[in-house]
Amino acid sequence: MQLEKILAQLKTNTGKFPHLALKRAIEEQEAITPILLSTLERLSDNMEELLDKTDYLLHIYALYLLAQFRESLAYPLIIKFFVLAGEVSLDVTGDVVTEDLGRILASVSGGDIEPLKQLVKNQKVNEYVRSAALQAFLVLVAQEVVSREQVVQYYAELLSKMGEKEYDYTWTMLVINSTELGAVELKEKIDKAFEQDFVDRFFIDQEDVNASFRLGTEVAMNQLRDNYRYTFINDVISEIKGWGCFHAERF
Predict the structure, then answer these.
(1) Rounded to an integer, what is the distance from CA 85 to the centroid of its chain?
(2) Model pTM?
(3) Which InterPro entries match (predicted)?
(4) What are the structural domain ranges in the chain?
(5) What is the DSSP letter of 12?
(6) What's the Cα-to-Cα distance from 97 to each of 23, 82, 245, rounded to whole Å?
(7) Pick from 71, 88, 168, 74: which is nearest to 120 by CA?
(8) What's the pLDDT score for residue 250?
């Protein structure tokens, strides 16, 4: 299958999973990578194009393929894409943000956490995108790229600034992630977050945190390493073949 045909089959959603086109795209990694990178860069400056073309999917495939390729050049482009997308991030990427963006960012980061910190800090970015950046830290810890201590220290700094900003979902995610890390050393700050109503108790309550902390850090870390949500993107085909948009006949 020629590159042009691969891209044509990946450009829009036909309702059928493009298994062969994705397989060939992976085989043609060297040739297709520059095209995927340029796609993200072009669309970052033309977000209205994505809003107008709801069946367009090449940017989604680009995110996952570049993550599987561990393409470091994609790192700043993916961040730029979601910074410029602002509040329409979820409109143009669907469930990718809440399901896999953290894993995608971690996969292309090469262990460089400074861009993730800047993304979390940027209040103009959608709160769920910033939460995904927080989750990327857990992926890097689980995959032993970044130390647990380094992330706990960073989370402590964020929790210390909690009263300076209004509530959004990133605070809840910060508590969830701290709990996943078994960060007992942050318990005082987490308790304060609950006292100040900075945590959405629908997602996690104080007893959830306490129960996890009672199990100990070692148990928490073992669970983290065994959790699929904290793995790199390794196989695009298996990651997305079950998506509902490819199986409309089921519904």
Answers:
(1) 15
(2) 0.94
(3) DUF1186 (IPR010602)
(4) 1-143+231-251, 147-229
(5) B
(6) 24, 9, 16
(7) 168
(8) 46
